[in-house]
Amino acid sequence: MQPREVDVAILGAGSAGLSAWRAARNMGASVVLIDPGPFGTTCARVGCMPSKLVIAAAEAAHHARQVSEFGVHSEGVRVDGREVMERVQSERDRFVGFVMEVIEEAREAGELIVGRGTVTAPGKLAIGDGTEVVFKSLVVATGTTPFIPPPFRGIEHALFTNETFFDMETLPKSTLVVGLGAIGLELGQALHRLDVQTTLVGIGGQVGPLSDPIVLENAEQTLADELDIHIDYELTSIEPAGEGIRLRFVDSKGRERDEEFEKVLMAAGRKPMLDKLGLEHLGIEPGDDGRYVIDPETLQLGDAPVFFAGDVNELHPLLHEAADDGRIAGQNAASYPDVRASWRRTPLGIVFSDPQIGVVGGGYAALGDCEAVAGEVSFENQGRARVQAMNAGKVRIYADKHSGKLLGAELFGPRVEHLSHLLAWAVQS
């Protein structure tokens, strides 16, 4: 079989990979996309979109139970877990279908290879079916996979992640949520509102991406009013118990707990999918921490014709950032060795909990040593929030002390996704 020769080879056909494919093609490069499947992108298949469908169902149940505060009474609210998941899967498959249209476009153009690619030497890839690809530049866009902490590696029978959660036929009766990042907060709160007995645990005081101690404290207190949530728990033991698990731990209030759960939702972080890619054959070694050093401006690996795009580079694990990564990596791969930095959006992350969380411009943690001042507002007595009985949360906005230049913000409050977008535009301007 003759080798397939291309200017740019792309490992991974997710959001970043597809964006890189378009960008390299637009530069006039010959391109091939290599992915073993399943196709559909993390966002559409196991991330943003199906999680929002679960959240929408949870919000409907929550609002139905809360309307008595307005003098409106809705009796007998009942959650049918099977019907909830049927709608989630039906709509999820529709979103995946839109992505598949792009995959088919690549297939029809002869620019898709279904298989797992492995680097065998600089400029060479081997595919599982025996195909060899010779490339001038490589884009690695293989994404991430859920990280399972060692104590939880013996309970696979009861464990699920965002990659398996949305395929459940119905909702479990009880769930332990491990990890308080975006996935843990969103799905943990949604499960609670859908009548699943839910306990959420984390370490290090994390609540989503918040780093401002004032906003963080407000978020912890507000969420604890509704949820059994513990931002700094201490695990004593975990073991199988029938079809579920038995957990012994010390919660955030110092109480010893001994409980059983039907399922464990693992949301303790993700790790780059770099195993078995053969990157060692590029002649570039990872750093002491096991991570490859990527230029955040160009996404280039060292001085090699290799570019990391999307979640795999661990720089900006967000859908819109993955798309931008793909554009930058695809353009640089096509024009190598003429490699350039490109424009980026103001950093913006949103967690669709209730209240929502927004971090603009990197938030409090990104201020570093700069001399900044902060403006603060509470939603407790804010007019519209009280009208809608959603009056909880706090916002902190940061500016340079001397110039008054807007630097960013951390937000925890009702529907702050909209205010977060406005502030991001303001920072970028």
Label the overall shape: globular
Per DSSP E runs of 2 or more residues, the count of β-strands stands at: 22
**Helix share of residues?**
25-40%
The proportion of strand residues reads 25-35%
How many strands, which pairing sense, and closed or not: the largest β-sheet?
Answer: 7 strands, mixed
Query: Which stretches are low in confidence, meaning pLDDT under 50 for 5 or more residues running?
Result: none
User: What value does the Rg take, in angstroms?
Assistant: 23 Å
Helix count, DSSP H or I runs of 4 or more residues: 10
Task: Give the CA-CA distance, first to last residue.
Answer: 54 Å
Q: For the residues shown, what is the average pLDDT?
A: 95
What class would the helix/strand composition place it in? alpha/beta
What does this structure look like?
This protein has about 425 residues and is of the alpha/beta class. The chain has helices at about 15-25, 40-45, 50-65, 80-110, 160-165, 180-195, 215-225, 320-335, 385, 415-429, and strands spanning about 5-10, 30-35, 110-115, 115-120, 125, 130-140, 145, 160, 175-180, 195-200, 230, 235-240, 245-250, 255-260, 265, 270, 305-310, 350, 355-360, 370-380, 395-400, 405-415. Strands 1, 2, 3, 4, 5, 6 and 17 form a seven-stranded mixed sheet that branches. Strands 8-15-9-10-11 form a five-stranded parallel sheet. Helix 1 runs parallel beside helix 8 (about 320-335) and helix 3 runs parallel beside helix 6. The mean pLDDT is about 95.
